[in-house]
Amino acid sequence: MISLNKKGVIILTHYRSGGTLLRSLIKDYIPDITNIGEIDFVEGTYDNDTKVDYKKFIKTVFEESKPNELKLIQLNNPLAISYLSGIDYFSYLNKNYHIIHLERKDIKKALLSLPLAEEKINFRKKHKDLSKEDLQKKFHDYLLLNKIPYTNIYTGIHFDTPNNENYRNYLDYQLMLLTNRLHLNRYLQNKYNLFSLTYEDFESEPKEPFYKLFSIIQPNRDKLATQLRFHQRHGKQQYINTDYLDYFDDKVKKVFEYWNIL
Predict the structure, then answer these.
(1) Half-sphere exposure of 80 toward its Cβ, with a 13 Å CA cutoff?
(2) What pTM was computed for the model?
(3) Distances (CA, A) of 249 to 27, 151, 262
(4) What is the pLDDT of residue 163?
(5) Cα gap 26→120, rounded to integer Å
(6) What are phi and psi of 23, to 5 degrees?
(7) Are 74 and 101 in contact (CB under 8 A)?
(8) Which of 152, 107, 121, 122 is nearest to 14 (CA)?
(9) Which pLDDT score, from 0 to 100, does residue 168 have?
(10) N or C: which end of the chain has fewer CB within 10 A?
(11) Regions of the chain short of the pLDDT cut 50
(12) Angle made by CA atoms 141, 228, 202, in degrees to the nearest 5
């Protein structure tokens, strides 16, 4: 459950795992909390060496605070998590913050939902006159004829990747990055005995772990469920096909099948 007797709350997670939705709900019930958002060590791009002073940045974000200030931090960037783990900074974080471990069981959607959402945003810009229902149908039809290429899949790491002319090499690399990240987060969850939640615990209907997390700050389950549905209606993308692979080229399907992700 969420504790309010520390410096704040950290959501330890990965991209496309419901972290932003969970952060919005926590903000709803702790309105005075300082929403720091997602932590990233990069200023814009990795085309040139990053100029971020990691240790100074960490001190500012995690150690400095105003009197009686509570911070809400979404920690999902793989470089940030790896660095903080490498310098053993999670020992400090665990003592001073309430850390929630969050992951998405559906690895397929975790990888495919971002390029799919980006494609929909671009499509919507060109069809502003369509209703929500018509947009959903036309977008579905459009993607069945114009499949999303495998090169649109990435895991949030902006280093140079392997040769993207070799689809197997490229997708193997992205899947390796994601699975390694999941295992590091699970290691930290186990080492520090963190409260663990999955996106599937509140992606549609709220389940017991979700209610347990909020039991102190919102014991009214009906009110919590209502607020969750509000955010789902206004923030969650909906698609006609629930199997996102239908919208991607055959190369993605081949590699996902090879990795037993179907």
Answers:
(1) 23
(2) 0.87
(3) 38, 10, 14
(4) 65
(5) 28
(6) -65, -40
(7) no
(8) 107
(9) 85
(10) C
(11) none
(12) 75
Question: Can you point out the beta strands (E) in the chain?
Answer: 8-12, 34-38, 71-75, 98-103, 195-198
- Beta-bridge partner residues of 72: 9, 35
* Phi and psi torsions of 57, nearest 5°: -65, -45
Inter-axis angle of helices 167-191 and 107-126, to 10 degrees?
A: 120
pLDDT for 144-184, tens place per residue? 999 999 989 887 766 566 666 788 888 888 888 888 989 99
Q: Which of 249, 262, 78 is nearest to 167 (CA)?
A: 249
CA dihedral (231, 103, 237, 154) in degrees, to 10, reads 140
- Joined tokens for residue 209: 């772990």
How many angstroms separate the Cα of 23 from the Cα of each of 29, 153, 237? 10, 25, 17
Ramachandran region of residue 156, left (φ > 0), alpha (ψ -120 to 50) or beta?
left
**How many CA atoms does the CB half-sphere of 148 hold within 13 Å?**
26
Q: Quick one: pLDDT at residue 79?
A: 84
